[in-house]
Every structure is written in structure tokens, then in C-alpha cells.
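Checked the freezer inventory, then went back to the computational side. Two predictions to log before the end of the day. The first one is the construct we discussed on Monday; recording sequence and C-alpha cells without edits.
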Amino acid sequence: MMKTFAELGFPGRLIAVEGLDGSGKSTQIYLLKRWLEIQGLKVFFSEWNSSELVKAATSKGKKRELLSPTTFSLIHATDFADRYERQLEPLLRAGYIVLCDRYIFTAFARDTVRGCPQEWVRGVYDFAPMPDMTFFFKANLEVSLQRILDGRPQLKYFEAGMDLRLSTDPYESFRIFQGRILEQYLALSTEFRFILMDGNQPIETQQTLVRKLVTARIDLQSFATDAHSKKRKV
């Protein structure tokens, strides 16, 4: 297994969250970010598919439905590589706690379900070390679906896996597509030792446990900003 950032001697630590769309992972990483910031720690947040370099191309390709599974995979890999080179690695070398809403495991799960060979997908990302902590939020499919629909009127085309022609009904397609991704995640969770979280639990209950686990695993005060360190000493 590849080494974590800590094992490679990076001063910083990377915490990632993974899970199906609607699993609650984004809410949990945001709450963790705010909690760490309030303590005056050096924190940086990055989310999947957010690089300015490829955002426009991804958006255009999705709208026109031009993306094959391989193209989709390579665009996301380019996005990740750009963010890794410009943001993640430099900040980890500078001693930051980096929080990632999705990491390479999203590609491992999604791209494989879309038909890309597993070994090929992993080879594309073999430059990236493992996170120091990976939380996997496992929620029931119906819970995830309802959470998504609570926030907007309908499912997105690729989110529902409509490009795979699994069903003409977006909701049924979502269940099939996300169900297959869940199977991949469960296999990955064993292989890469994910911290399994019950995504069906109340938000506060989950966040309390996340903070407890992070505190137990990482020496948080070593990531305090200089100003905050001085304030504590006064």
C-alpha cells in the first residue's frame, strides 16, 4: 500500500471524506473545517472537480453530453493533478491541515463503475500519497436521494448515471448507479482502511465523533498559526 503524507515525512496532514452523493460528507467536512479554524489552526479546504484550469471544459462537456467514461476520467485526473501540484502538496509541505471533500478514491469507485479498467484508473493517480485519515460516510440510498432532493428539484444527469443508460427513470438510474458505486466503496474501505461513519445518524452525533477521532489521531496544536500560538502563551 502507498504511504500516507505523515509516513512520507510531510509536516502537514491530509484528511479526506468519501461517500455517495447525499451521504452528508460535505456537511461534515465543512463543520470540521470551521471547528479547526475557530481553534486558530492552519487549515486549507479543497473539493473534487474544482480546479479553475479544467472547470470550464468539464462544464461544457457535461452540457453537451460529449464525455466518454475515459474522457470523464482523464478530465477529473487533470483537475486533481492541477490542485495537487498547486495547492495540496505545497500546503502540506508548509505544515497545513488539508481537508479534501473527495480524494482519489472517488475516481477509483466512479470510473470503475463507468467501465474504466481498475488498474488503469489507479495508475493515473499513482503519484498521490494516501490521506492520513479517510472518513467514509455510509448512508442508505433512500436517505442520500432525499437529502439531494431537499436541496434542489431534480437530480443532475451524471449524478444519476444517466449517461450509462441504466434506466430512463432518473431516480431508478440513481439507485442503480450509486448502488454500484457503494459496492466499490465498501471494497475500497477494507483495502485502504477507511474510518466508517454511519451517515444515517444525526449531523451533530457524527460531527462529535469526527472531532474526537481527529483529535486522537492528530496533534492539532502543532498546526496553530503563529499568532494563535503567541496568544496561548500570554
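The second is the one RB wanted added to the comparison set:
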Amino acid sequence: MQTLSPSTTDEIIGQLFDILDQAGLRDDTIIIFQSDHGYLTETRTFGGGGRAGPYRGAKFSLFERGIRVPAIIS
């Protein structure tokens, strides 16, 4: 999986907005940008580990870190 830098992500989203503006579709389009919470505890995949910061839990958990996922809706 490729990880994009924040500036690359901003540029790609900006290009998407430009295309929608040019087509006159921006006002009629819902754009959802959702991220993965990323914290994984399984050692069999990618070595496991990570840090949940001040939150408890991880993926597949109903605690804070298992259900909080960053998202932007425009």
C-alpha cells in the first residue's frame, strides 16, 4: 500500500475539485475522504504494534481507538 504525503493528497483532492468545477458538478457532488485509524495489534501482519495515543483499544475493538476514524465530507 502506498502512503501519500499530505501535500500530495492536497494536490490530488484539489485536482478532483477542479475537474468537478469545470464540469459544473461540484454543487451536486458529495465527496467523502475517509482515513484508516491504522493501529494494528496483530503480529502476524506487518509486525503489529502501533500506538493508540490516549485511547484504548485497536482495530476490531469497540473501544475508542477501534471506532474513531478521521473523515471529511464536502
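For RB: The chain is about 30% helix and 10% strand. The beta strands are 32-34, 71-73. Let me know if you want it refolded.
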